[in-house]
Amino acid sequence: MLTLAQIALHVDGVIIGDAECKISNVSTLQAANSQQISFLANSKYKKYLPTSQAGAVIVSKEMASLVKNSAIVVDDPYIAYAKIATLLNPPKKITTGISDTAMVESNVNISKTVSIGPQVVIEANVKLADRVIIGAGTVLQDGVIIGEGTLIAANVTICHGVEIGKNVVIHPGVVIGADGFGIVNDKGKWIKIPQIGGVKIGNDVEIGANTTVDRGAIEDTVIGDGVKLDNQIQVGHNVIIGNNTVIAGCSGIAGSTIIGENCIIGGGVGIGGHIEIVDNVMITGMSMVTKSLTKAGIYSSGIPAEPSSQWHKNVVRYRQMDKLAARVKKLEHPDIGNITK
Predict the structure, then answer these.
(1) Hey, where are the domains in the chain?
(2) Which CATH superfamily, name and number, covers 97-299?
(3) Which of 97, 231, 294, 298 is 20 to 30 A from 62, alpha carbon to alpha carbon?
(4) Is pLDDT above 50 for 168?
């Protein structure tokens, strides 16, 4: 447990109330007890402040007067919460060494400070730097290179020729470097195109559970530094994702698309192939992108859910749009129909 003073020092916050209050962990405003700290980052949750049992609350200056007990006042409560949650929940210590049940080829280059779990398979020419952690049941195929401090969770498959940078986190079930969807139709028969590229992943990347990153068809698929991918995302072959871009769950990116730096892509977004998205673009959830986005900004598409009866009416109106557009055009230009060739 830490005192509120120790926690406030970690986030450069100002204390209101009892600086010696003992805090064990974080929780929500609704569920927190007197030994937990909560946060208020969205004003719609301020209704829970009067009844919250939290020992302390992380708040902004604007909300500080609403706290009945102790508080840490910061510029951005959500960022401070993230830092405090990390402080109070440090990663578990990992024992170095190789499990007796792991299968490791002889011609590999593995640091003495790695941790390799049970039933791991490591093929030839793999290189693992210092403090790499490989979870149970993971497979590293021929020639995989992993930088120092990287964590590969259980049941991950990293195919041949993949390079992963430093301090990367890869969650369970991820597949990196499987063949991309490369096929061609020859007189009615689909023929597979060999996928001979690799995958290069930068430093400080996080890849969520069951996400897949396909290998390049000829050149590499590239994930830049600081990229954060949520769960169940499909990254097609030869895709390039720029530094510090974040993509939410269930999005799909078709092959040979280039996404710029510092982009934010919402959940369930579909991005077509062979297009380019510039830096600093935000795409809201469930949007469909079929052409290049050449200017920074916020983009949206799709129709929010509504009662089925209203949706049916809107569909009927949508189908009438061509006729309506023709009528408007005729009203604006009444002579068009009288012009003869």
Answers:
(1) 2-88, 97-299, 308-338
(2) Hexapeptide repeat proteins (2.160.10.10)
(3) 298
(4) yes
